[in-house]
Amino acid sequence: MKTYQEMSKEELTQELTALKAEYEKIKGMGLALDMSRGKPGADQLDLSMGMLDVLDSKTALKSENGTDLRNYGVLDGIPEAKKLIADVIGTKPENVIIYGNSSLNIMYDQVARAEMFGICGNTPWCKLDKVKFLCPVPGYDRHFAITETFGIEMINIPMTENGPDMDLVEKYVNNDETVKGIWCVPKYSNPQGVVYSDETVRRFAALKPAAADFRIFWDNAYVVHHLYKEDQAQILDILEECKKAGNPDMVFEFCSTSKVSFPGSGIAAIASSETNIADIKKRLTIQTIGHDKINQLRHVKFFKNVDGIKAHMEKQADLIRPKFELVEKIFSDELASRGIGTWMHPLGGYFISFEAPEGCAKEIVSKCKEAGVVLTGAGSPFPYKKDPKDSVIRIAPTYPSLAELEQAANVFVVVVRMVAAEKFLAEK
Amino acid sequence: MKTYQEMSKEELTQELTALKAEYEKIKGMGLALDMSRGKPGADQLDLSMGMLDVLDSKTALKSENGTDLRNYGVLDGIPEAKKLIADVIGTKPENVIIYGNSSLNIMYDQVARAEMFGICGNTPWCKLDKVKFLCPVPGYDRHFAITETFGIEMINIPMTENGPDMDLVEKYVNNDETVKGIWCVPKYSNPQGVVYSDETVRRFAALKPAAADFRIFWDNAYVVHHLYKEDQAQILDILEECKKAGNPDMVFEFCSTSKVSFPGSGIAAIASSETNIADIKKRLTIQTIGHDKINQLRHVKFFKNVDGIKAHMEKQADLIRPKFELVEKIFSDELASRGIGTWMHPLGGYFISFEAPEGCAKEIVSKCKEAGVVLTGAGSPFPYKKDPKDSVIRIAPTYPSLAELEQAANVFVVVVRMVAAEKFLAEK
């Protein structure tokens, strides 16, 4: 098959005419499909329904240390939930605070408290003229929304296949004391599926920040979200690496069971150094009396331990792996073969990050919408929703059924071909 | 029986000697009792255990509008939970946002967002030189902790039997634009059990605040927490009264099921005007994807409707009413009869607010502690923990068993008598 780069003007014209006809036909079908949402499918959620049976009116709702979990108290989580989450992310229970249902809320809180009260005695960020965050791109739109809402200046850091461009990260962090944080999704990054290499993690740990209150916001959202049994990424424990490098307080690590049990009804946690945990608890005790301990117990009883979570995630992987493979196959056959799009092959996480020819993403998303296929907005994976190359489109394959996904992906590839053909033709 | 005021120096000396001997005997008993905690007793929590049976793996976890409650989404609560809470506090579902497990956390968030972003387009409080809150006293220590943590200046407003001293409230609110809020527990106030009269509520609604962003923080914590079937307080709907008075946006109302179902595993809510709700949601959508919808459904299925909640609360009242009555009887027999203490007879809520002779509260709390009876710290019900008269002691009768409570109350009255006798003697 000829790539679009190789096609003559005539060939491209012919291709475009055929694609336009096909597109019109698709538009007439009245489709209503959605590849925008990073949500588990109903079949994945079905796997957690047993969680509703592990507690009943006969259960003694006591923690292993005897606390009555039905009553007030326990600011930082019940011991058995701390252990479970610590084992999941590979740290110690004493480094963990269990919150409510949302790790995003914990991240917002961390930024909000830094703004209002400062981190560990440092100047509150709201008193500073300028606060900057580094944002590896493409990244997670809700991270960027938090920093944007506080008026924090966001700086794009390009991603490589090993993680963020560390030369650039070091340049900023080690020299600019207005740089106070960086958003990271170290394993199966949103949206590319990048796994941070050991070297990347070690370079993070070895940073020499100009700002005493610089923190790495380490969103380990996909820590157990492998797609393949035989090819599971492991990343180094950033807390441990930072400690070894003499930067014990440099990291806030986040995780949740949102895409393990039930989104919205899971448990979320932060892990950090003893000093940071004490700093957080000093304020947290004003914010709340405690989080939902019964739901913490429910999770512990259902999963039992980290192996239970891993086994559960294998079942989920069996459900979503075919979806990822289907999309990748259609993209390979229809787009890569024509030289009009690239992506990284993800080994886990929730997304495929498709890179269209430059200047095409917005048009593709818009044309797909017209044809009844909703995609994540072009630009979403970038600060201020501005993709400098107008190229990245985040594909979320988990929520639709396989049949819907096939239909949606087939519409998508026709639209990409049409928009790319137009672009290449205009440049001839 | 003679009151201490009526006793001669000799009689008081004799009384004190006897009490000191009794106190020493009590100290020798090695008691470990606690009347400090506003927590439900285990028997109250037992009443909610059925809540763990209303959902199981066979339940369709759908909202009445078809939403899959197991997945992401629904920022402001499922419709049936909004209706339940609206009926409890007497407002409309569209005025309600259902949150997670803690109304305290909602209040903190409201103050935090006002500080960081301002209310409805007004200047963020953190940019102002001075922000003040009115604090009816005695009041709830955790309210005061929130305003203190933000450096908000707190002004004591004396409570009357009809609510806060409204002359003073009007004077401050209508003339001082740095006064941005007031903490209210309008029904069965913490700790006195005061019920705001209709006139008080109407005077609140008719305020003419100097500050456009003045808000009443209306913590309707004990809305269904009656002690008696035949004597249940009703207060006017502040949202409706404010609307009628032309101040539709002046109130944030809070409530939760913390002392209805399970503290820590209940649902909490804010109710406010359409304008305020829209202002809140604009930021809330950055903070979180949504709260625990399955727990919302669990509450709706268990209680069914507001009548279900009322019936449930009657059962709780049957358990705690004898505790309140026991404490009041011992106080009447041993203290009121001797002229050394007053309190209001509460018809609901969680506390009895004992007022010792001036200058005695700290000493009483300290001497009780020495004898193995823990009380809420003297000063706690006041901003900055400073009781100007050193008189108020908050008694929490719900958590101990009746037998423990009787023992604790009997120690308490001996200590009050001893400390009061010493004081009266010193003044002879």
UniProtKB/TrEMBL annotation, chains A, B:
It comes from the Bacteria. One of its GO terms (molecular function) is L-aspartate:2-oxoglutarate aminotransferase activity. Pfam families: Asp_aminotransf. InterPro entries: AspAT_Ic, PyrdxlP-dep_Trfase, PyrdxlP-dep_Trfase_major, PyrdxlP-dep_Trfase_small. PANTHER family: AMINOTRANSFERASE, PUTATIVE-RELATED, ASPARTATE AMINOTRANSFERASE. This is GntR family transcriptional regulator protein. It comes from Roseburia faecis.
